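Researcher: If convenient, please comment on what follows.
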Amino acid sequence: MSTAILTGTPVAGSPLEADLRTLGFDVRTANDATAAAELIAAAPAQERVAVVDPRFVGHLHALRLALTDPRFPAAAVPGALTAQPEARAALVRAAGKIPVGAGTAHLTDVLTETLTESLDREDIGLHHVELGSLVATVALTPAQRESARESVALVDDEAVRLRTAVKSRDGFFTTYCISPYSRYLARWCARRGLTPNQVTTASLLTALIAAGCAATGTRGGFIAAGLLLLFSFVLDCTDGQLARYSLQYSTMGAWLDATFDRAKEYAYYAGLALGAARGGDDVWALALGAMVLQTCRHVVDFSFNEANHDATANTSPTAALSDKLDSVGWTVWVRRMIVLPIGERWAMIAVLTALTTPRIVFYALLIGCALAACYTTAGRVLRSLTRRARRTDRAAQALADLADSGPLAELIAAGARGRARTGSYLAPAMAFLSAAVLLVWVIFEDDPASWLTVGVALCSALLAGAAVSRPLKGALDWLVPPFFRAGEYTTILVLAARADVPGALPAAFGLVAAVAYHHYDTVYRIRGGTGAPPRWLVRATGGHEGRVLVVTVLAAALPPSGFTIALTALAVVLALLVLIESIRFWVSSGAPAVHDEGEPA
């Protein structure tokens, strides 16, 4: 129970007290600022406190947005404001500074506005709610109250609540084929007390069942898998809409929503590969290739956004052209569909699973994702080359964290530091060469499972260390993490495929999945403002160059069957290590209460 303080005499016949109790507040009254400050200070330390003018007139949802959203330390609308525990001290100070007595009527007549202005000056992150068509005002006279009530009656706040539960920017399939009805499913869940985390978990379980159906290898199983995958996506949209509808944002929800999408998709790939194997078709290489390509696409998105979202002088002719195209309605949807976002991608996978074979599903997925990757990466390279942005230290650190360099690369970087100019193209060039040298060798060498490959991996590590020897502030330095991901994942894929023994590719699939989880976890920690995983975890997992070196040593030292067992063991160890630390962090940390909106791709 939170505390709401009405700062004055309640207005007869007003539903305000009932509305506040509906929102979960224990209502108290205070005659002046001094009494309000005493009540604020007396409330339990872990509680949220709200201050509301008894003359408030407005929609219940306007109050809900101002007083119950957990994402902000303090929030306000005209006539009402709230402070969470971290902002309550500032609210007490603000109330305590308001003088009492003659000549102070202008400060205490609308006390909530005076307190809001004071909190603005405190710079505590006060959020001013954007009301749109909703009404929130302080009616000082009966005439104003009547006019405000008429304005409230003209707008259906439940319709507004349903509309704003849907993301403002989404893919074509999601916008027109899912959201028109999933928002009502979200409301149904809210009215039955279900939480977004429960819906997210249901979506994961549905996708895992779909993967199990695909693994049967029968036509009936494939049809059921396609239908269940689509239903899983409906639930995936519903959890975010439920969070926005009921303002149930949480740290755990951010983690679940951020990671489960990838877990569902990649588990489904594995199910398709198992189903194909039952029919005598080995598509594990295609399944792993699809996972590698999709993960690398996301790393491009994440790296580019982290490098540029707080850059100064961040404009370019290419960006201006993009904005101009977005002003034409139909081009917006075409451009969103070209990148094959999650809605279109899952719909394609589901339909092709039901109607064709796993091999065709993976061919279509690889072709579609490759074209989308070329389109988005080319556009971002053009933007980077034509803009004169100055990257921040924060952005450089984020890119260094996304690079996931281990002890070996750190040692090499320390030795090379000072030999490259920050802002040049040397970092992406070294990262590209690091990946290219290794991949060309393992792909074209007759026997890549040799000690020569280990030597090439060491050369690759040298180049990787040189790439991160200076702060990553160059125009194209955001390409460094994607090059490292492509080099590591594809090397594992090729060595497992070239081993040519049963089980090698499934073991490699598990290993790449575990490492990819670690990289996604890094992204969402950075997005949450809490920084990358601890250095001990990065060092324990070896960094990208360390893992490549270990895999090449295992391939050279062990027979193919032993290599398969070693890959499996390595996958299990890494998965346990990163999962345990990730769960510990997201469950117990002070990460911000946000619900991830996700990337359109």
